[in-house]
Fold:
Amino acid sequence: MNDLDKDASESSFGEILTHLMSARPPKGHDRWTDGMLAGRIATTTATIANYRRGRSWPSAKTLRAIVSVLGLERDNPEHQSTIIDLEDALERRSPIASPNVDKSLFHFASSFPSLVTSPIRRSDISEWLDISLIEKRKGLLSLIASGGSGKTTAVRSWLEENKQALRKRFSRVFLFSFYRQGQTREFVDVDLLFEALAVFLRIKVKPSDSTRAKARACLNALLTQSVLLVIDGIESLQVPPGGESTRIGRFKNDDAQEFFDALSMMTISASIVTSRVPVVLSNRDGVDQTAQFLVRQLSQGEAIALLRSYGIDGSDDEIVKYVAACRGHALTLSLVGTFIQRAYKDGLPSLDELSLNETGVIPEAARAERVMAGYLAWLPPLRPRS
Structure:
């Protein structure tokens, strides 16, 4: 439900902000004053007053701070419409008054894994995305790799690098992740995706509607709107390895299966998904609009560059032992780089010290967990605040 009592689709940013400051007051107060809100987001009282009066507008970073202070969460379906109203109101402001502000292309419908600053440009992934999405105009692209292999970071980097090409084909890019930021537990309810997408597409669905009704309403809208969906971590929706052998990679929910089958046939809208499990679609007639990419682990040169980006000194021969032990796994290498940089400033540690002395083959995730456990054991205990 929108926090506004009226249709906010044409309201100004100042009108929406003024309403929210009254409708979502801080504890113990009737409303937010300009000074109170300014103090919470480290700006001036006059700046907040100018936002409300339409004399100036916040940056994307400041808007995120305002949204957070007002207690609005992207992961809460009841708040998503209000957040979109605020973003849309900023985009409608006078281009003469704000000539240097770029209209937002990306809409993050949930907490999304952060874009990690990395010297590694995954040129093979970028070239595949260029060809499959921009040139061949495939409907469904899936990147498959074990957790922590860098597939999400590669997609985020490619999106940032290709805004101009994306604008020529798509009106907006919708990003949704089945992971919570900073947590390992996954969202496993596909309804969360459909409800967030419905809000973004400005179509009416109710929480009480069936999953199928929500999915089909979204698909109908995507047939006429040029939207790129980026959906991260869909393995939580799929039958995992070790399950029923004939269903591995298919979707547990029939409505989710139908939704992704339909996405693969799209020609106006398109989607990029990441998963740890290859995506298996239903047998269907017509032109195959799918493309799949198996993400490789980092090469030796890429892995050395990643470790050096953390300030790790030493020769390539010294550093390569860590690369070999991590088997090119991006997350493990990042953990190792952070660990060495913070804990071993006077020299390079042994593999034993980094919990990388296992000679057998262990999964990448288990290897990363060992490094993290060693790192956490090294950290000094937290001291209670006085």
